[in-house]
Write a structure and sequence with these properties.
350 residues; alpha+beta; Thrombin, subunit H; six-stranded antiparallel β-barrel; 7 helices; 19% helix
């Protein structure tokens, strides 16, 4: 005889009630989330579209490299005094220098392709990544009156090598416009890029004025040469140009990279700024002479010459960005230069 099983009616009622409560909680939670999040940009990115947009953005966001070689002339004292800038005008530095050295200075950053016309690409990046002065004067730091005007050394540019890294190789770039105040620069590729993987950024410019406290931002770039995306929280800034501050922990190479925010209406990412700098300071330290050939030992005192050098120390987690309104204004101010170089589409777009 088959055994029969009975379900108590009370259990059925409790099960139905539990399902209704669970479904009601989910609906209530979703409603509460929508009710709380009324900002222009989302402070939570829960979208597969965002992931795809960031992946696609790397077709327009590229690594750039700058390398400049300087010849440095060490000045000799004449009658106990070093020369001034006026004293060396029109003088052959080879004849008055006591010593001559060759130095290489390099930097890396991130640039965004904003136009491709006439087989050339136009990119925007941070000025400090690509800007090196032709001549650098090294002044004395003495305390005597007038001594600060005397030259210890003069460095003169010998060559420049600047390029953008693409999936199919490197492409030489040159500076079209530069703005140290905004920390922005416009670059163009020098030769035909028809076979290069350089595409215009397919993310619309946003409204950085609507960016609010706690809004989530994404930055893409090449810190230390590594292709990377970082997420942070935005804070407002009263700086005249760097109006976006974020808690991003960036490394060198991220400068110039775009900053994206997520629209709350489901339309995806918008381009709101470009990374320009991180908070930091210069750290001064003593170092052995650079040509020291011996091996260092912690058990033996170092007896060679000592030199004073400095290096930037980054305060990770405090990152600044210039907003796209400043970038747009910078592009407009240089429309004649862009037209002369064949970028008419960029002039009318921005």
């Amino acid at each position: 005889m088959q055994e029969k099983h009975f379900i108590h009616p009370v259990f059925i009622i409790m099960l139905i009630f539990s399902l209704q409560v669970a479904g009601g909680c989910q609906t209530t939670d979703r409603a509460l989330q929508e009710e709380r999040d009324r900002g222009y940009y989302q402070n939570q990115a829960l979208s597969l579209d965002v992931r795809e947009q960031i992946r696609e953005s790397f077709r327009a966001v590229k690594r750039i490299q700058s390398s400049v070689i300087y010849k440095t002339y060490q000045m000799e004292r004449i009658n106990g005094e070093l020369p001034t800038v006026e004293d060396i005008q029109g003088v052959d530095l080879e004849e008055i220098a006591g010593d001559v050295t060759i130095d290489t200075h390099s930097s890396a950053g991130t640039a965004v392709v904003i136009s491709v016309e006439n087989r050339n690409a136009l990119l925007i990046t941070a000025s400090h990544v690509v800007s090196y002065p032709d001549t650098v004067y090294h002044f004395s730091r003495g305390t005597e009156a007038g001594l600060e005007n005397q030259l210890v050394a003069v460095s003169v540019t010998q060559s420049r090598n600047q390029y953008v890294v693409t999936d199919s190789g490197v492409e030489v770039i040159e500076i079209l416009a530069n703005d140290n105040r905004r920390d922005l620069a416009l670059l163009r590729t020098v030769s035909d890029i028809s076979d290069r993987d350089l595409r215009v950024l397919n993310i619309p410019m946003g409204n950085p004025g609507r960016l609010d406290w706690t809004d989530v931002v994404y930055a893409v770039g090449y810190p230390r040469g590594v292709q990377m995306v970082a997420r942070g929280i935005a804070s407002k800034s009263r700086h005249p140009t760097r109006r976006i501050t974020m808690d991003l922990s960036i490394n060198r190479g991220f400068s110039g990279g775009p900053v994206f925010a997520v629209r709350n209406d489901g339309s995806g990412l918008e381009w709101v700024g470009n990374i320009t700098s991180a908070m930091g300071e210069r750290e001064v330290y003593l170092t052995p002479e650079s040509l020291y050939n011996g091996e260092y030992s912690s058990d033996l005192p170092y007896e060679g010459a000592l030199y004073v050098q400095s290096t930037p120390r980054i305060y990770y987690g405090i990152t600044h960005a210039v907003d796209v309104n400043e970038a747009t204004q910078f592009i407009r101010e240089n429309h004649f230069v862009l037209l002369e170089n064949g970028f008419s589409r960029a002039v009318f777009t921005y």
